[in-house]
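Protocol step 4 of 6: record predicted structures for both targets in the notebook before any analysis. Target 1:
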Amino acid sequence: FIFVVLVTLLSLTTYACSPKPPTPTVTPQPAAPRATVSSPAPASQDSWTQIVAAAKKEGSITPYSFIFTGNFATIVAHSFEQRYGIKFSPVIGTGTLIMERIRSEQVAGKYIADTFDSAASLVATAKIDGLTVNIGPLPELDNKDKWRADPRLDPEGHFIGTYVITTTIYVNTNLVKPGEEPKSYKDLLDPKWKGKIIEASPVTSPSVNRVYLALKKAGLADDSFWQQLARQEPRVTTTVREAASALARGEAYIYPTGQSVTMTPFILEGAPLKPVSVAEGVIVSVGTPVAIIKNAPHPNAARVLLNWVISPEGQKIYQENLGVIPLHKDVPETTNPAARVNLDKVLPINLADELEIARIQRAGTVAQLLGVQR
């Protein structure tokens, strides 16, 4: 027993006095490279050339879009792909549904959307909710004297507008004869229009909320007006396109909050629709802003798309196919039958208004006044 104890003590002493082996050094491995939106430093030709090269290497872009539909989407895809060799694959839907999808993807860490376009209030809300990033400098934005209206709606540089739009009352000319059109929003309360009005839901569409705010700001209509309009029993559709389509088919006489960008395709196809110059004035805003989504898988391609959209090439395509008033002065303004209204009296909508419109829509203020279920 004594012998075993002595041997054990000797072994422990030897181990304690022997030099310890060096602790292995772990060399951290570099993270996998990830494409990012370039820093918003002043643009240069060299840096933009590098961005375009990186965009071509990314090879594709997935816009989450309200506007890139039908033949317009086909034309945009062809032109953009021909210009840059970048595949254009939009995902289409209403603004609120698209934004919820973006939120879900961000939470799940499944990043698909590169850009998001919709009504200004929804894009502004996406920024507030942390879903967008600074777009950085774009060469076209340096042309400060080229704009009918400045596309830079957001002072923090998260999104840009893409064209000028008007909002007013539209009528079906087969049902509403010349001289019988409402001359004012208050004329909509005439009993003869009961059951003959169509409207897009204020829950899913900001257009009604935009008119609500514009009239309220100008002191032209308070909440009681919308409560009285609800007693006219308007038919309420989910989207603005559904409202425009129903008006074109003669399922309603009047659409009180029609937007030129929505109505143009129907009018160009020969639908019996026309805008009305109302006494309160025409509501004017910069339409369908576009933003780059946080964690976009193709951020360089997204920047190239935004720059192309406000370039003369992109603006010409927007004008020719949507009938919108172009932002860029190098694209001649042509007469748009859907926007042919008297612009002597205008109710302008600015960015602060768009943020308030988003708040009104989220709160369900107009939906409650009209009795629309959220």
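Target 2:
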Amino acid sequence: MHQRHEALLTTLLSQPTAPFRESHVINWVTEVLDRNGVPYFTDPIGNIVVGAASQADYQRLLRARSDDPLRVFIAHMDHPGFHGVRWVQPNVLRIRWHGGSPTKLLRDSRVWLSTEDGWAGEGVLRKVSLHPKGYAIGTAEVHVKAEQIAPRRPGAKSLFGGFKFRKPVWKSGAKLYTQAADDLIGVYCIVATALDVFAKRGQKQRPPFIGLLTRAEEVGLVGAVGHFELGWLQAARRALVCVSLEASRTLPGAVVGKGPIVRLGDRRTPFQADYLQILTELAEQVLPQQHQRRIMDGGSCEGSAAMVYGLPTIALAVPLGNYHNQGLEGGPDCRGHLGPAPEFVHVDDVEGQRKLCVALMRSKLPWGDPWRKVKARLKQNYRDFQKQL
């Protein structure tokens, strides 16, 4: 990974975020886009639409006559975390958790706190109650270091947070450990692709690129569904292909360090076979022997939401260690199996996913006949054996 890209990625991974509390990530994204002259706007749900300057501009792009489909890259800006509910003592904050989480070894685990203005201290979890379904924290208390909240204690509901480790992000060998890789990795890939696409100032035609950076994915794909409910994409006059980007739980056949994953489907649905064939051939060209291909059925992603709304969808994923900060793979700062642990990814997997995003922007990809190479091989095989029929 180029030093410039790594600096971009690590700065993003240092931003605090939680469902409905994505403001720091939003500020980082818009600052980078502004600095590089990339157009964007915010939709009515608060998602960032990258590649168009306004709703009207976006709809012009959707109406443009072109045989080249508009690539709509999708990633979410939140990560599981908590919201403050009320102060029950001068330094004890009642919290409610949103999204998945570790379920073991929670007492006295460290957490960070933030407001929209910035970092607001740290504390430890006490009196943890799991969600009724047992898959995550429901409510808890955060015992905040008293010296960090005096003399001005923030309002309880202005606070949000997540699990704290030695640093927000650090590198060990080729692995990046972080408080939140899911799905800031996808956000990074979209922003980096946008910078690449819009850096080509000499291009005669407008690039067929949109990035959709969504909110509150971790509580049920809320931001993506809100955008699809607007109906803008469904009203397009040109072909579309949605490209879901994720950092997804490691599974057999999807291993950290073996390359990004051509995601054939998730827990809910397989994705669009014709366009997946184009993505597969690109991966074989761009990352020979350095990519993986699998149905990633450990969970549902925004690709499912796009499919539900009738939008042709393909997907990529970076294999993720310690998914949702659960100590599934262990490693540094892990408190034990299913206890709090930093998520981790391999830098080569992230770089591979970025390269595939850029490759998907190539002109003259065979969108109208994605199986032509396979068909040619099958027909040749048929001719070779025809005399034996």
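Step 5 preliminary note on target 2. The two ends are 53 Å apart (CA to CA). Residues 29 and 321 are 25 Å apart (CA to CA).
Proceed to step 6 after PI sign-off.
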